[in-house]
User: Fold this.
Amino acid sequence: MVSQRTAILSHIPWKDYVLLTKPIIVVLLLMTTLGAMIVAADDWPAMGLVLTTMLGGGLSAGGASALNQVIDRERDSKMQRTKNRPIPAGRMTIKNASVFGLSLCLAGLVILALGVNLLSALLAFIGMVYYLIVYSILLKTSTPQNIVLGGGAGAMPVLIGWAAGAGSLSIEAWLLFALVFFWTPPHFWALALIKQQDYARAGIPMFPVVYGDRETKRQILLYSIQLVALTLIIPFMNLGGYFFLFLAVLLGGILILLAARLWRGGGNRRAWIMYRYSSLYLALIFSVLIFEKLLF
Assistant:
């Protein structure tokens, strides 16, 4: 009996279940959650609250990512970048992926509601609806502004973290929300430049597919400038000090430089560098907020 159970467990595609959650994206979202939480609390919150918020937020984001892959399964099968995901590759049934995603979402909401507060759970629920219905179903295939309009879903973890740390939302919370919101277009459009043939095959009107490379690169530069400008407001809202301001200028200057180089005529290599650095940039900005709040 034990050997039978062991054999069954060995065939369960644990790696595919992990891939359904888009773990790299979840880690980045949790970084913004933690940063907002610490800034809101003006110190390191109780460890139990931190762990509960991270667990609830991680499960909610991972479950929503799994359900997103259920929704996108046909489009994913047409794209080189996503055709080997568990569902389009045939390693995972739609039923199993749906049950898994719904279970994670429900568990995340319950943990946030009971272990953190009702506001954080409500914000997580709104984020799920925004991501799965507003973005994945309504916006993704209907407008080249899909990433812009859908960016609010990726920024919701900031509000969840703030609600966990402060118990309510404030203008400062919405400033950090705006930071992630304006980060989203230059980050994903850099990837879209590289993978635009994939998006065209899947019938997704990403910005470069509709407006071309030149206009996309111009928009990446403009959004990058707006994003860096937002970070420079943060010290004046008492969310950061001179240390944050110095690094915001340094990190933002690199981001704008990379965006400008791409706009001046960069190909896929420069687009890839922009895409990778923008991920690092967001993680570093929130890391600096955490570091300064705890040590200064």
In short: The chain has two domains: 1-167, 170-296. The chain has a mean pLDDT of 93. The chain has 13 helices and no strands.
